[in-house]
Every structure is written in C-alpha cells, then in structure tokens.
Amino acid sequence: MEPLTVGLLLIAAMVVLIAAGMQIGIVLFALGAAGVWLIRDNVNLAVNMTAISTFSGIQDYLFATIPLFVLMGLLVSISDVGKDTFDVAQNLLRRVRGGLGMATVAANAVFAAVTGVSIASAAVFTKVAVPEMIRHGYTMRFATGTVAGSSILGMLIPPSLLMIIYGVLAEVSIGKMFVAGVIPGIIVAFGFVALIYAMATFRPHKVMADPARDEIARRHDHVMGVGEMALKAVPILTLVALVLVGLYAGFFTPTEAGGVGAFGALVIALARRRLDLSRFWRILTETGHVSVSILFLLIAASFYSKMLSLAGVPQAIGDAVSTLGFGAWGFLVVYIVIVLLLGMLLDSSSIMLIMVPIAAPIAQGFGFDLIHFGIITIIAVEAGLLTPPFGISVFTVKATLEDRSARIEEIFAGALPFVGVMLIALALICAFPALSTLLVR
Prior knowledge:
Blueprint: H1 3-19, H2 24-40, H3 43-56, H4 65-78, H5 81-93, H6 99-115, H7 118-135, H8 140-151, H9 153-156, H10 161-170, H11 174-180, H12 182-202, H13 204-207, H14 211-220, H15 226-248, H16 254-271, H17 277-311, H18 313-323, H19 327-343, H20 348-365, H21 370-383, H22 392-400, H23 408-431, H24 434-437
C-alpha cells in the first residue's frame, strides 16, 4: 500500500475513533505507531519511534511554560481577583447603556491576561456577573450569553494555553504568539463592547427585562472611590504588567514569564489570605493533572504529525488544493470552515491537535506567516466554544449557574451575537495580516 494511501486512511480512522468516543491522545499514539509500521513495514521502527517521541517530545525547557501558566491561573482564580476586577469595571461603567455587560467584557479581558483559560473565565464570571446583572433587571439570555461570549477572550488574549499548544505543534515562537494575540484580542473585546452598546440602544428589550429594577438597584449600589478602586485593581494590573510588559520588552522568555506570573499570583493569594495548606495542595494537584493531560496530548500529536509527514500527506493535500485552483485564500476559507464545523463537535485542544499538524505545513507552502495563521486558527477554534451542540463555554456557564431554570438553548441564543463579532474580527485579521504581526516585527 502506498504511504499516502496509508496516511489518508489513518486520518479517516482518527475521525471515526474520536467520534466513537476514544481518548484523542490514545488515538493519535496508536494510529501514529500503526502508520509508521505500515509505511516502513517494520514494527521495531514503530516501537522505537514511539519511545523516542515520548522522550524527546517534551524535554525542551519551553514546555515548563504549561504548568507555570496553569498554576498562575488557578492561584488567580481562588484569590477573588475576578470579582474585584468586575467590581471596578461595574463602578466605572454603571451609567452607560448595557454597562454591566461591558463591565463583564472588560473584566474578562483583564482576567484573561493572567489565566489563559476560557473555561476558568466562564466559571468565575457566571458566579460574579450573572447574579449582578439579573439583580439589575437584565434578561437571563443576555446575562449568560455575555458571560459565555466574553469568556473566549481567555484563549485569545495572551498568555494562552492554546497559543502554547499551537506554538509547539507549528514549531513557532510561543513568545511571538503571545505578542501577536494582543491586537486581535483588543479588537474582539472592543467588538463585544460595541455589540452590547448597539443591543442596549436599538434592541433594549433583548438586554433589559425590567428597566425599573435597574434604577432601584443603582440606588442601593455601593459607589467606590478612587482609592478603593485602586486597591482592588492594583493586584491584577500589576500581574498583567509583569507578564505582558516583561514578555513584550524582552525581559522574560515565555517560561520565565510563567514563573514570574505564578510567583506574583502566589503572593496575591497569600496577601489576601485565600490560601492555606489544603488549598495549596489541591491547586498543585490540579496543576499536575491539567499539565500532564496537555503534555500527553502534545507528545501524541507530535508523533502523529511525524507519521503524516512520513506518508507525505501535507504535501499531497497542498498539491491537491493547488490543482483544484483554490489557491492560498481558497485553502484558508476551506480550512476555517472545517475548523468551525469541528468546533461544533470537539473541544479546542482536540481541534488544534487534529488540524494544525496537517494544515500548518500547507499554509507555510502557500506563503502564509505561521504566526498570522496561528491567530486565525485560534479565533476560529474559539468560536466553537460558543456553537451547539458541544459549546463547552456555554455548558460551563450552565453548570455553574445557581439558577437552574435557565435553559441551555437560551444561553446558546445569548452567545450567538458574540460568534458573529468573532467572525467579523476573523475576516478583518485574514484580510489585514498586519493586525496580528505588527507587534511581532
């Protein structure tokens, strides 16, 4: 059997096995080994390549970035930093139409700059922002949709675990990926704010269920002074400055930034007395669980990618796309559509692990900057967090809600306008690559 035929059959087998419910890491490892065996007709080579990939796949110092940023995110999550950030944003925007929705987006954007995980943002702000919006008379659909929609900023605004995963799979600088995500993250965040203002202005019944309740709630709200706002905002802003300014100015490598950020988050948690020995042990254990699962997937994806290269699959697909006359932009459109469709069925990491090893070499062959291509990939993947039937951010909001009367379809409907904003931002970034590469140069 021709190597290319083997590679294409194993891609089909991967889709079937994942759809059947097998763990993606195990699927990638098993099919990678089977592919090497069939292509080279040598079972010993397959076994040896599996062992070598397992050893060499994560021995680089760079991979310490993953547990460090996971640890930082978990420490920040228990420190009530998210609540304080929302309180400050709410205080500043309390007089603006749709102000609490905008406050949720603003708080999510800042929170994203230190957690890097969309699910953490969704869980935190479901508890913090949704009850407050309901108290002010906002509709449940708008409140939950805003939290779910703005939570995707967690993976777009650096540091981001998806950026780390992409950087490893595409073999590009993680530090450059972090810097490249800043402008697109700001564009998406401002797009969300503009959406909320437009909805509150032109379709207020979709935002406010009871405007009179908003007036009553405002009279009872505590209005913070400058000093109190500064006290609440300084810890999170200091942490953001440590990580992002350190990275952008070249003071830290991504791994060093993760270490500095984790230490800063530890200091904040201790200063706020949110950390005792049992909580600290629980955080360390969870950091280990999350990090090991990600690293295992990266090893498996790296091995699978080598098998596909050995079979000549990326080259063959690239040649086929050229032969069909799609060209570079045709390839990009087809790729985005496939990623968006996969987002309806799979989680973000799984989509990256499946698509990037195949698509990155093709994109590079068509002349795309892999940093630019990475930002496009991450935005398209993140849109999947809000689309049914999978929509993991939407399900996180539903699972965290104290009000069990909210229906899952209601949350999906509330998040749908945010998907539209993301697609507009995606089109802009595709059309103007400088929006993602300007700060990298």
